[in-house]
Each structure stands twice: as C-alpha cells, then as structure tokens.
Amino acid sequence: MHVTDRGSQPDAENPEWTEEMAAAAVRLPSLPEGLQRKLRGRPRAAITKQRTTLRLSPDVLEQFRATGPGWQTRIDAALKDWLASRHRA
User: What is the Cα–Cα distance from 20 to 22, expressed in whole angstroms?
Assistant: First the structure.
C-alpha cells in the first residue's frame, strides 16, 4: 500500500503498482488516435476564454496576486462586474 506524504496513513485509493499491474498497463501511444485525444489533458469548457496580453498597474497586479491562486479569474470577474454596472447606468 502506498503511504501518503504525511507518512502516517496508507492511501487505499492509490496502491503501489505490482509487476502484474505494470505488465497489463497500456501506453497512450498504442491506443487509437481518437481515444488518445479524448484522454489527453483537461476537457474543453463549453465557453472558452481567449488568451490576451494585458498591462496592469503594479499595485493592481500585486493586490490580485496576493489573493492567491485564481487571481486571473478574479480579475475577469471584476471586469465583468464593471461591465454590468456600466450597462445598468
């Protein structure tokens, strides 16, 4: 049984692989191309965002980054809120 990083409890959902498990494993390149595409990476969202370059003031960027992971999403939400407030006026 695999031991977690804490080293205190075994991880029953992620056991160490046995020789038999390794021998039975199928490598991704040996699967059909269509299935490989389905298994690779994260599924596409229904609405995808567009990549862009945006220049922000250092203080704005610092404050959003200080909020932790997901700061880019919070900037997107703040801009959406601003747009919604402009349409109400």
Answer: 5
> What are 49's two structure tokens?
């965002």
Please tell me the pTM assigned to this model.
0.50
Give residue-wise pLDDT tens across range 11-64.
888 888 899 999 999 888 888 988 888 888 777 788 888 999 999 999 999 999
Q: Give how far Cα 84 sits from Cα of 46, 51, 74, 77, 80, Å.
A: 22, 22, 15, 10, 6
Half-sphere exposure of 79 (CA within 13 A, CB side): 10
First-to-final CA distance of the chain: 61
Instruction: Tell me how many helices (H) and strands (E) the chain has.
Output: 4, 2
d(CA 14, CA 17): 9
